[in-house]
């Protein structure tokens, strides 16, 4: 009830009714029916109105709806397994890189007003570098830069002051898409001294240097046991891709390089901060092996139940519960 009251008080009602309007236009269903049904889904399944639209819950029966991992259910996992006071070690990318240096496998530095010489040394012999905000999300503010004499002065004026080596992607991943580092989202649970994999997904860029689903990228599940893709990809606008538009490579049947090594790395990384047990790791597949891009102490739920990736309308929530059962 506390969660529901908080959500009701903070709800963007203007946006809420825009969602009602979009679904009405798409399906022809009565606006009042949609409004009431959204409220029911919020109360019964902890689904926000964006969940209702994105996961097309208006087309699901009660049994199917119960299997959707909604925002509220995801929040429950976060509250159960993650101690809030440790969140900054994940949200601050500078702190994260230092804490997980063993797994990031790349050099990095933080710009300030007095380290131009250090920056120039950092850039020597490097064709490209990556600059990003310390606390950015969704890939916002990330830049791929070819450094020159004026780069430091340009960067110091902005917010993208965390400087990292540019990751050279494994050639096998380049076959799918070379324009971005295509990251694996590997969700782990560390509980009672046991680390396990909850789910694995691939996020793929589309003519951008970032692959984020909320920034123009595509997403597709990976078979956690085999490392093989079994579905077509989709972007947030609902466009479905049988092949990547840049390379023509088919998604179904594509095998992720270094997949077992990536899973093993994430399970090891999950033990570093045991107070944060439920983590979504973003993993790059580089020419030097899998490496952590970042860790998310609040793993997003929006990529896990997309309609084209469901069989008979069944979502991932039962599988999450099964995989997250406490080990005896």
Enumerate the spans where pLDDT stays under 50 for 5 or more consecutive residues: none
Beta-strand percent range: 15-25%
Helicity, as a percent range: 25-40%
Number of strands: 11
Return the CATH architecture of the largest domain: 2-Layer Sandwich
> Within the CATH hierarchy, at the fold level, what is the topology of the largest domain?
D-amino Acid Aminotransferase, Chain A, domain 1
Sheet/helix structural class: alpha+beta
Give the total of domains.
Answer: 3
Radius of gyration: 21 Å
Keywords:
about 325 residues; alpha+beta; D-amino Acid Aminotransferase, Chain A, domain 1; Dna Ligase, domain 1; 3 domains; 4-stranded antiparallel beta sheet; globular
Description of the molecule:
It is built from 14 helices and 11 strands. The strands form 2 sheets. It has a 7-stranded antiparallel β-sheet with strand order 9-8-7-6-5-10-11. Strands 1-4-2-3 form a 4-stranded antiparallel β-sheet, with helices on both faces. It has 3 domains: 2-66, no CATH class; 81-98 and 170-323, D-amino Acid Aminotransferase, Chain A, domain 1 (2-Layer Sandwich); 107-165, Dna Ligase, domain 1 (2-Layer Sandwich), CATH 3.30.1490. The model has no long low-confidence stretch (mean pLDDT 91). With 328 residues, it is an alpha+beta fold. A hairpin with a 4-residue loop joins β8 (233-235) and β9 (240-241).
Question: What's this model, at a glance?
Answer:
The chain has helices spanning 2-10, 13-27, 31-45, 49-54, 62-65, 71-81, 88-91, 93-99, 101-104, 116-123, 151-156, 171-174, 259-269, 317-323, and strands spanning 108-110, 129-132, 143-145, 162-165, 184-191, 194-204, 218-221, 233-235, 240-241, 278-286, 289-296. With 328 residues, it is of the alpha+beta class.
């Amino acid at each position: 009830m506390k969660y529901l009251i908080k959500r009701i008080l903070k709800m963007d009602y203007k946006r809420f009714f825009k969602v009602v309007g979009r679904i009405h236009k798409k399906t022809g269903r009565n606006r009042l029916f949609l409004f009431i049904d959204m409220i029911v889904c919020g109360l019964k399944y902890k689904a926000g109105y964006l969940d209702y639209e994105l996961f097309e819950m208006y087309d699901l029966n009660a049994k199917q709806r119960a299997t959707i991992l909604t925002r509220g259910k995801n929040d429950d996992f976060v509250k159960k397994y993650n101690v809030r006071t440790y969140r900054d070690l994940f949200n601050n990318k500078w702190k994260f890189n230092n804490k997980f240096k063993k797994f990031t496998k790349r050099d990095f530095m933080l710009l300030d007003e007095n380290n131009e010489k250090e920056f120039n040394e950092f850039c020597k012999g490097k064709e490209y570098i990556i600059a990003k905000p310390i606390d950015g999300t969704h890939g916002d503010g990330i830049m791929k830069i070819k450094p020159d004499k004026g780069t430091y002065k340009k960067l110091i004026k902005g917010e993208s002051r965390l400087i990292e080596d540019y990751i050279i992607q494994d050639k096998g991943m380049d076959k799918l898409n070379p324009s971005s580092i295509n990251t694996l989202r590997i969700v782990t649970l560390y509980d009672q001294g046991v680390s396990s994999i909850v789910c694995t997904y691939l996020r793929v860029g589309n003519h951008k240097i970032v692959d984020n689903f909320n920034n123009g990228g595509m997403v597709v599940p990976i078979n956690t046991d085999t490392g093989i893709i079994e579905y077509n990809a989709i972007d947030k606008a609902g466009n479905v891709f049988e092949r990547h538009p840049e390379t023509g490579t088919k998604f179904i049947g594509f095998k992720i390089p270094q997949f077992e090594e990536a899973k093993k790395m994430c399970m090891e990384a999950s033990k570093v901060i045991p107070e944060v047990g439920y983590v979504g790791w973003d993993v790059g597949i580089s020419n030097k092996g899998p490496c952590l891009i970042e860790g998310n102490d609040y793993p997003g739920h929006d990529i896990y139940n997309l309609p084209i990736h469901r069989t008979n309308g069944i979502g991932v929530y039962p599988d999450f519960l099964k995989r997250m059962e406490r080990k005896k």
